[in-house]
Amino acid sequence: MSLSKHYLISGGAGFIGSHLAELLLQNGHRVTLIDDLSTGSLSNIHALIKRKEVHFIRSKVSETTDLERYIEECDGIFHLAAAVGVKLIIERPLYSIHNNLHETECILTLASKYKKSFLLASTSEVYGKSAKSRFSESDDLYIGQPALLRWNYACSKLMDEFMAIASWREYKTPIVIARLFNIVGPRQSGRYGMVLPRFVKAALEGSPLSVYGDGTQTRCFCHVADAVQAIALLLEGSPPTGVGEIFNIGADSEISIADLARKVISLTRSKSQIEFIPYEKAYPPGFQDMARRKPSIDKIRARINFSPKYSLEDIIRDIAHSISCNSIR
Ligand SMILES: NC(=O)c1ccc[n+]([C@@H]2O[C@H](COP(=O)([O-])OP(=O)(O)OC[C@H]3O[C@@H](n4cnc5c(N)ncnc54)[C@H](O)[C@@H]3O)[C@@H](O)[C@H]2O)c1
After folding, report:
1. Is 39 in the pocket of ligand 1 (CB under 6 A)?
2. Pocket probe mutation, ligand 1, options 9, 22, 39, max atoms within 8 Å of Cβ
3. CB of 112 closer than 6 A to ligand 1?
4. Does residue 88 line the site of ligand 1, with CB under 6 A?
5. Which one of 187, 244, 247, 275 has the minimum C-beta count within 10 Å?
6. Residue 38: count of CB within 10 angstroms of its CB
7. CATH for 6-182+224-250+295-308?
């Protein structure tokens, strides 16, 4: 009996979506990718779309012709399409809110109608301003006020989580929620405010690495190859693992952003300097940042034996290698 399945990935031409598509193909599945290329890129999937097991649809999720038929025919849905990146969500808050809420509502409604397995890519941002040293899935959430920038993304993703859980409660839609923490690796774009691709690119060019604030804020970085393993494993089972539940996915070793900049400079043997830019200059008034954001990964470790395999050094080398290869092409 063949275990091959057919998955739909919204946001499939994005950074995480394209890596997930590759993994699902490696695992013997077929994939349909829906992407409007708003932040994703055809270059992320150029090798994939030549394959007969891959169907690519360039469209907004909600405007996809025959979306209902694609949902009916697939075995499961990875919903990754969203407005992503601090810069984008600050510059285009209304678009970001609308994109994150409306597109999720549209695809989740159809997933519920056909009882399809549905993984929602959520975010560590939903933990908001919590000062806890490690965030657990059962924590209460502490979001900043609407008048301040940034929180629109957290709230829209949180409403997506509420919608997914309500679909599970009311319609028994087999949903799983993955809260992703700083997923990084080759193909991630620095254009929308992602720190690591921005640092590595600057280091390779010999230009200054801009650290916002004093650089003492810490983050935990997880290689995209580790993250997509976990994401795929959650939905591939029949039934999926942890239906109706939330899982943190990330790495749990912390580094300050200033130390990250130093590490990037050292590993790329760059002559770049670090420049510290006050938040007031980097962002419009009212931007808030968090001092720490570290996941507890006890739950996902216990459930699917997840443990990140790639170190931060591996990640930086992989990103540097991919940026160098792309600039040679
Ligand atoms: N990278 C991270 O560290 C991280 C952290 C937390 C959460 N996430 C979540 O993971 C998911 C993927 O993020 P990513 O880092 O790969 O970013 P990305 O920007 O590379 O991927 C998002 C993709 O969705 C597409 N898209 C956006 N709106 C769409 C729409 N309405 N219809 C069709 N396609 C649309 C974009 O073109 C893009 O290809 C997002 O839901 C994001 O919120 C990512």
Report:
1. yes
2. 39
3. no
4. no
5. 275
6. 17
7. 3.40.50.720
Question: Cα–Cα distance between 298 and 168 in angstroms, integer?
Answer: 23
Distance separating alpha carbons of residues 119 and 186, to the nearest angstrom? 23
Residue owning the nearest CA to atom 11 of ligand 1 = 80
Is the beta carbon of 34 within 6 A of some atom in ligand 1? yes
Which alpha helices (DSSP H) does 45-194 contain, by range?
Answer: 67-73, 86-91, 93-113, 151-171
d(CA 41, CA 253): 30
141-192 per-position pLDDT tens digit: 999 999 887 899 999 999 999 999 999 999 999 999 999 999 999 999 877 7
Euclidean distance between CA atoms 117 and 323, whole angstroms: 35
Question: In angstroms, rounded to a whole number, what is the distance separating the alpha carbons of residues 90 and 108?
Answer: 26
279 is catalytic: no
- Amino acid identity, residue 101? L
What residues have CB less than 8 Å from 7, skipping those under 6 apart?
A: 24, 29, 30, 31, 32, 74, 75, 76, 77, 78, 235
Q: How far apart are CA 141 and CA 103, in angstroms?
A: 24
Going from N- to C-terminal start, the domains of the chain cover 6-182+224-250+295-308
Q: For 90-144, how does the pLDDT look when each residue is reduced to its tens digit (9 = 90+)? A: 899 999 999 999 999 999 999 999 999 999 999 999 999 998 999 999 999 999 9
Kindly report the pTM of this predicted structure: 0.96
Name which residue sits closest to atom 30 of ligand 1, judged by CA: 60
Q: From the candidates 7, 70, 127, 153, which is the catalytic residue?
A: 153
